[in-house]
Amino acid sequence: MSIDINSDLGESFGNYEMGNDPLLMEFISSANIACGYHAGDFITMRRTVLLCLEAGVSIGAHPSYPDLQGFGRRNIEFTPEEIYSMVLYQTGALKCITEAEGGILRHVKPHGAMYNNATDNSAKASAIAEAVRKAGDDLILLCLAGSAMEDAAVKTGLRYATEAFSDRQYDSRGRLIPRGYKDAVIHNPEVCASRVLDMVTKKRIITIDSNFLSINPDSICVHGDTKGAIEILKAIRGVLERSGVPVKPFKGRIVK
User: Fold this and answer.
1) For the segment 107-153, what is each residue's pLDDT rounded down to a tens digit?
2) What pLDDT does residue 19 have?
3) Reduced to 3 states, what is the DSSP secondary structure of residue 9?
4) Other C-beta atoms within 10 Å of 189: how many?
5) Which residues are CB-contacts of 42 (< 8 A; sequence separation ≥ 6)?
6) Which helix (H) or strand (E) holds 52?
7) DSSP for 91-153?
8) Region of residue 221 (phi > 0: left; psi between -120 and 50: alpha; otherwise: beta)
9) 146-155 burial, b if ≥16 CB within 10 A, otherwise e?
10) CA within 13 Å, CB half, 81
11) H or E segment at 230?
12) Averaged pLDDT of the chain
């Protein structure tokens, strides 16, 4: 039994700094690097790739709706064709930077509203899956377990991996509670660590109404911009190590 830990990085922009990427690298096995649409820029993308290569962290693209002002978290209506093109564009940019620096782009994880919109919208999910497939035969789509994106990956014949969130509350359907709601984001490191241990060893998540849902994640996400992210990661790594669960990059599920 092993588990991947992923985090969203490279979200600084110009003179604006977000998170503590060098320190986060010590605790994660996969990074989702912003591609300039919700955060990040060409310098930040390259620097984050270099940090990943130095730390031995698996590199992934983190495409978003073009929404710097809203950090990619505002619901903006785009057609499937537009989503396909923007995912291909952003993934291609990071893939080129990564390969130029001697690395390999391993996965793609949509960000924010794009991710949430594709959770239950099959047309948008299919546009994302098809763009990832066209961007590279070996790329893995990282998506919410039990979502339309997982279904789209299977139908497209795309390798995929499922994730669960350590620092977010779930509703009764296994969907993330919107950030605007009270207690949607969890900041207590011990609570996050306990939830992760349940996800990994008992294959379940507890919902906001105190029920359990079955889950079998390949990866656990800790948002780099969550307040106390470093403390949360330390607590998670600690509880996993004490339970004998190694942290390794996911390999992706092969559709047969």
Assistant:
1) 999 999 999 999 999 999 999 999 999 999 899 999 998 899 999 99
2) 80
3) strand
4) 21
5) 36, 97
6) helix 42-55
7) HHHHHHHHHHTT--EEEE---HHHHHHHHH-HHHHHHHHHHHHHH-TT-EEEEETTSHHHHHH
8) beta
9) bbbbbbbbee
10) 0
11) helix 229-242
12) 94
Q: Name all domains of the chain by residue range, CATH numbers in brackets.
A: 4-242 (3.20.20.370)
Per-residue confidence (pLDDT) for residue 205, from 0 to 100: 92
Strands of the chain, DSSP E: 4-9, 30-34, 58-62, 105-108, 140-144, 160-165, 204-206, 212-214, 219-221
Segment (H or E) for 240: helix 229-242
Opening angle at CA 9, ends 192 and 43, nearest 5: 170
Q: How far is CA 67 from CA 40, 58, 111, 255, in A?
A: 12, 26, 11, 33
Q: Using one digit for the tens of pLDDT, what is the confidence trace for 149-196?
A: 999 999 999 999 999 999 999 998 888 998 888 889 999 999 999 999
pTM for the model? 0.94
Query: Residues 6 or more apart from 53 whose CB is under 8 A from it?
Result: 59, 101, 102, 103
Which residue would you say has higher pLDDT here, 53 or 16? 53
Q: How far apart are CA 249 and CA 57, in angstroms?
A: 8
Nearest to 71 by CA among 104, 103, 34, 42: 34
Contacts of 3 (CB under 8 A, 6+ apart): 200, 217, 218, 219, 220, 240, 245, 246, 247, 248
Instruction: Note the pLDDT of residue 256.
Output: 64
Six token digits for residue 16: 């604006």
Bridge partners for 213 per DSSP = 205
